[in-house]
Amino acid sequence: MITQQSAAWPVIRYSAGRREIEQPDQLAAEEPLAIRVEGHSVAVVMRTPGYDRELAAGFLLTENLIRAREDIFDIAQCGAEQGHVVNVT
Fold first, then answer.
1. What's the first-to-final CA gap in the chain, in angstroms?
2. What is residue 82's predicted lDDT score, i.e. its pLDDT?
3. Based on C-alpha coordinates, what's the Rg of the chain?
4. Which of 3, 47, 13, 7 lies closest to 26 in space, CA to CA?
5. Rounded to an integer, what distance in angstroms lies between the CA atom of residue 85 and that of residue 56?
6. Where are the domains positioned within the chain?
7. For residue 74, how many other CB atoms are within 10 A of its CB?
8. Long-range contacts: 8-11, Cβ < 8 Å, 24+?
């Protein structure tokens, strides 16, 4: 599931210490993602929304919690009512 990855936000631009203009700018979205292994919390990471399953798999690999993709049976995205959570089995 990919959600909005950026949003327009008002930004005040300064030049030589003086306020020049206020205008919208695109800023990257950032949200927490809880990574669980067989229901047990492993980490909460901040990320730009989207590609949560791939992020969880890469995180587990770099933290030596898995050694190969064959160590993963499934990566489930939990429902919105539970927040931003993936469960790896």
1. 19
2. 59
3. 18
4. 7
5. 10
6. 29-88
7. 8
8. none
* Cα dihedral sign, 81-44-57-89: negative
Q: What is the DSSP letter of 78?
A: P
> Could you read off the pLDDT of 8-64 as tens digits, one per residue?
899 999 999 999 899 999 989 889 999 999 999 999 999 988 899 999 999 999 999
Return the structure tokens found at 5: 């990855």
| DSSP summary character for residue 80 | G
Q: Is 0.85 topped by the overall pTM?
A: no
26: Cα separation from own chain's centroid: 18
CA 60 to each of CA 10, 37, 68, 77, 86: distance values in angstroms, whole numbers, following the listed order: 37, 9, 10, 16, 12
| Rounded Cα gap, residues 22 and 20, in angstroms | 7
CATH no. of 29-88 = 3.10.20.10
